[in-house]
Amino acid sequence: MTAARDAFLPADPEDSAAELALVEAARADPTAFGPLYERYRDRIYWYLRTRASGDEDAADLLQQVFLQALDRLAQFNPKKGPFVAWLFGIARYAARNHHRNRRVTISWDLVPGPLRPESPDEPESRALANESLARLAGIFASLDRDKRELLVLRYIVGLSFAEIGPIVGKSEVAARQQVSRLLRALKEQYREDL
């Protein structure tokens, strides 16, 4: 697995005790927040980048999210869910607040290269692949914001269903079922478009 892909995978569940120790250290001393920032910066950035109109907006939102997280660290309750879900909740709210009056679409070009399907160098294969990608991008763009967000959280940011559930206000099972139904519907729509 490539290093770029690893940046999008969820943290090891066994690492939750170490993460909680980082949170407690940051609560005691705000200068100790750095390791939490380093751990989640890229994942939060890519989530925000899919919701922002450009790199600068995403960077501004990233800064806002981490400042709010640091400011509200005392409000984090590990009994309500993992730190990453709490942090993505802040990011989700910041992105929605930032784009309250705009319909945000996610460009297919923002999907990181390692996550895109590779196509052979043959012109015919490239043309077919480009046509398929354009069709998928159109289907993806036609989804409502909440459905796009579920797919982004799962497949671009790489969160587990346990992490997604608290972010979107659903149980882990409900989040898993909704993504599963959404993927089936997308497959059917893709086949119908052929």
Q: Describe the sheet with the most strands.
A: none
Determine Rg (CA atoms, Å): 18 Å
Low-confidence stretches: 1-11
Name the helix and strand elements from N-terminus to C-terminus, one letter apiece.
HHHHHHHHH
Helix share, percent = 55-70%
Q: How many structural domains?
A: 1
CATH architecture: Orthogonal Bundle
The number of distinct helices, counting runs of at least 4 residues, comes to: 9
Q: Beta-strand level of the residues, as a percent range? A: under 5%
Nearest-integer average pLDDT: 81
What fold name stands as the CATH topology?
A: Rna Polymerase Sigma Factor, Chain: A
Topology:
Elements: H1 3-6, H2 16-28, H3 34-51, H4 55-71, H5 83-98, H6 123-142, H7 145-156, H8 161-168, H9 172-193
Helix pairs in contact: 3-4, 3-5, 4-5, 5-8, 6-9, 7-9, 8-9
Q: How does this structure look, described?
A:
This protein is an all-alpha fold and 194 residues long. It has one domain (3-104, 122-193): Rna Polymerase Sigma Factor, Chain: A (Orthogonal Bundle), CATH 1.10.1740.10. It has nine helices and no strands. It is elongated, with a radius of gyration of 18 Å.
In short:
The protein is mainly α.
Main features:
194 residues, Rna Polymerase Sigma Factor, Chain: A
